[in-house]
Every structure is written in structure tokens, then in C-alpha cells.
Design brief:
With about 200 residues, the protein is mostly helical. Among the domains are: about 55-135; about 165-199. It is about 65% helix and about 0% strand. The chain is built from eight helices and no strands. The chain has helices at about 25-45, 55-70, 75-85, 90-100, 105-110, 115-135, 150-155, 165-199. α2 packs parallel to α4 (about 90-100). The protein is elongated.
């Protein structure tokens, strides 16, 4: 046996709106809009989104200076610009990027930041930690030593003016490349000879 619910008319429904009819009167709409504005202002104050324009300009200038230092690779010099900024969302994000591996907790806090740009970037950066956990990687020994590409990358650093190519290093690199080429071709001949003997 199926128990049916009451008809909609029992709940006071049944109002028909014709094209051009309004759901609420003009006075009700004005009252509702005022109340909505009041709630929005209270919400913005409660989460700290109301910032003095002068203070915001100072903070954005400090963030830009910190970003330029960070882009040129001077991370330790960039940190104070982010720490003293009152525009906390972007400043905290950039500060957190500077101290990436040591500051996983900062990313977790920024995930719930009200600024969507900040929370989206924090979510993207948290993915690297999740990937490390999924792949069971504790750290990287690959980046600890000199990879041999440092001179190459320093050549493109716009703030570095004293880059000089060293002929000795180029000669060593060419010798290593030649030995790799010879050893690779010898290895191929050896494998081919083994396959020929096996068949």
C-alpha cells in the first residue's frame, strides 16, 4: 500500500504567476536588498575583506618588490616583504612558496582562504605533497648535489653579469660526450653479437 502525500494546496500553494507578475512587491524587494547588503558588509568585516585602499596599495607594492626578488632567485631577501605585508592572503601564499618544503601547514591553512585565487593556488601546491605521499617519497637526494647544469642556468640569470664560459669545462664535457657515444655504440655491437650467437 502506497501512502500518498497531501496535495500542494494543503500547504498554501497553488499561486499562479502570470507573465509580468512579480513574486514580491517593490517594498519587499527594497527591504530584502537592504538586508542582503547589511549581511554582506557584516560578513566581509568578519573575515577581514574590508581593507583601507591606502594600506592595500602599500601592501601590493611590497608584494611586487618581493615577487621581483623571488623571480631573480633571492628568496631570503624576498621573505621580509611577504612577512610585513598586511594583505595577508597573497603575501602568505608567496611567503609559503618561498619556504615550500618547510611550510606544508601554511598551504593547508590557505586552502580555506576566502580569496579564490589564493585557495586555488594553495590547492595546486598541496598536490605536490599529496603526490609525494602517494608515491611514498620522503625526499630527493637528486637535488642535493650539483647537477652539472648550474653554470647553464646562471648564464640566463638576468641579474648575474659576470658569467664566463670556461673552456676547460667545455673540453671535459666534450670528452665525456665522446666517451658516451663510443661506449653506447660498443654496447650496441656487443648486444647485436650476442643475439646473433643465440639464434
Amino acid at each position: 500500500m502506497v501512502i500518498r502525500g497531501k496535495p500542494i494546496l494543503a500547504f498554501g500553494g497553488g499561486r499562479t504567476l502570470r507573465p509580468g507578475d512579480s513574486v514580491e512587491t517593490a517594498e519587499e524587494r527594497i527591504v530584502r536588498e537592504k538586508q542582503t547588503k547589511k549581511f554582506l558588509i557584516a560578513y566581509k568585516e568578519s573575515i577581514g575583506l574590508n581593507i583601507d585602499p591606502k594600506l592595500k596599495l602599500e601592501c601590493e607594492k611590497a608584494i611586487d618588490e618581493g615577487n621581483s626578488l623571488m623571480d631573480s632567485g633571492r628568496l631570503k631577501e624576498a621573505l621580509p616583504y611577504y612577512e610585513k605585508s598586511e594583505l595577508h592572503g597573497l603575501a602568505a601564499l608567496q611567503w609559503s612558496i618561498c619556504q615550500d618544503s618547510l611550510r606544508k601547514r601554511m598551504y593547508e591553512k590557505l586552502l580555506s582562504h576566502p580569496n579564490p585565487r589564493v585557495s586555488k593556488k594553495a590547492r595546486q601546491l598541496m598536490f605536490s605533497f599529496q603526490a609525494m605521499e602517494m608515491l611514498k617519497v620522503k625526499g630527493s637526494s637528486f637535488m642535493e648535489g650539483n647537477t652539472g647544469y648550474q653554470d647553464y642556468f646562471e648564464a640566463f640569470d638576468k641579474d648575474k653579469t659576470n658569467y664566463k664560459a670556461q673552456e676547460e669545462k667545455e673540453g671535459e664535457a666534450m670528452g665525456i660526450c665522446d666517451s658516451f657515444c663510443v661506449s653506447d655504440s660498443n654496447g650496441l655491437h656487443f648486444v647485436a653479437a650476442l643475439r646473433g650467437n643465440m639464434h
